[in-house]
Amino acid sequence: MKFLRRSWRMYSKLGKRRKSKQVWRKPKGRDNKMREKRKGRSPVVSIGYKTKRGERKVIVVNTLKDLEMAKKYEVVHMGRVGKKKKLEILKKAKENKINFSNFNAGRFLKKNEPRKKEKTS
User: Does the predicted TM-score (pTM) go above 0.85?
Assistant: First the structure.
C-alpha cells in the first residue's frame, strides 16, 4: 500500500505530477480528518499494515556465503560490512546479477575502482 501525505493532489510542490515529491508526512492538524482516521479518507501509517513475514523474504548479506543463498530471496540488503569485504561481495554480485535494495553497487564499484596512472614522457 502506498501512503501519501494529505492534499498532495492539490499542489505541484507536494507531488502533483511529481512522483519523487509524493512522500509520507504525518497529519498533525487539530481538525485534520485524516489524523482522526475518518471514514473515506486516505489511510494513515499505523500498526497493522506491515506485510506478513512469510511474504517479505528479505536476506541481509554480510559474507560471500550469504550471497550464494541470496538467489532464492526477492529482497537483498547489504549488511554492515567493511570496504574491503564489500568490494568482494559486490564483484561477485555483479557476476550473478544480484541487485541490492538499499545500496547502489554500480556507483560504489565505479568510485572505488583502482585508477591506472598514465605516464607522461
Answer: no
